[in-house]
User: Which sequence fits this backbone?
């Protein structure tokens, strides 16, 4: 039999590794965001508006900054996170994109990790604008408080992203999805938000980074619980 008459040899199909699958999901979200800018830009403007309005209405001198700026920063980030989630999942709903991702040979846990990582990067970008702006408007020394803010953000943001990704998937097919997401998400975020607010208040009151250990440990436990829960349950939430 000649070579032209031989049937083609079927090559074995190679499934990407778990880490490669996560990277593919993150790369997809980042490329879309770099092209459109709709998530980070919209959410950042919203968070900036909250900070600016609070600075005009609540700031009454140096004595109030410790009590006000902590709440303003984390409330702005929390609302920006909900807005970012709504915009990010809107992309997956459009033209059945989510269905295409789900039926692809990508593990549900890798999809969760990729979506959560992308959201976490978006939130870090928003925080890079919101935190310095809040420090400027509320007369906080950024050089002095900056390391503490960075540490609080590193512990709080992964939990916010993991929780939002997990329950964003749960509400993606509901009609009142944005309302349901806010109703479900904010009570669940209360431990990490309260810890962030209390830790930031103590930081601005002169506490050292070592004295913030209890707040950081509570946020770390929250992060671990929802990251582990998302990796285990995300596939069930995506099922019809």
Assistant:
């Amino acid at each position: 039999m000649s070579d032209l008459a031989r049937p083609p040899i079927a090559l074995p199909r190679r499934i990407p590794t778990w880490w490669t699958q996560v990277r593919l999901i993150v790369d997809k979200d980042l490329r879309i965001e770099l092209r459109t800018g709709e998530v980070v830009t919209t959410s950042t403007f919203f968070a900036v508006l909250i900070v600016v309005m609070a600075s005009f209405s609540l700031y009454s001198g140096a004595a109030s900054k410790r009590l006000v700026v902590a709440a303003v920063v984390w409330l702005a980030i929390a609302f920006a996170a909900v807005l970012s989630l709504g915009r990010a999942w809107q992309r997956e709903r459009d033209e059945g994109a989510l269905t295409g991702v789900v039926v692809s040979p990508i593990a549900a846990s890798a999809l969760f990790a990729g979506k959560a990582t992308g959201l976490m990067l978006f939130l870090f970008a928003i925080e890079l604008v919101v935190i310095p702006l809040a420090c400027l408007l509320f007369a906080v020394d950024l050089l002095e408080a900056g390391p503490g803010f960075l540490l609080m953000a590193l512990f709080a943001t992964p939990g916010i992203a993991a929780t939002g990704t997990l329950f964003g998937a749960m509400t993606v097919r509901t009609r009142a999805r944005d309302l349901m997401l806010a109703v479900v998400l904010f009570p669940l975020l209360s431990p990490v938000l309260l810890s962030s607010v209390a830790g930031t208040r103590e930081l601005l009151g002169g506490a050292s980074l070592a004295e913030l250990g209890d707040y950081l440990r509570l946020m770390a436990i929250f992060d671990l619980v929802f990251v582990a829960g998302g990796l285990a349950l995300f596939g069930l939430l995506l099922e019809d």
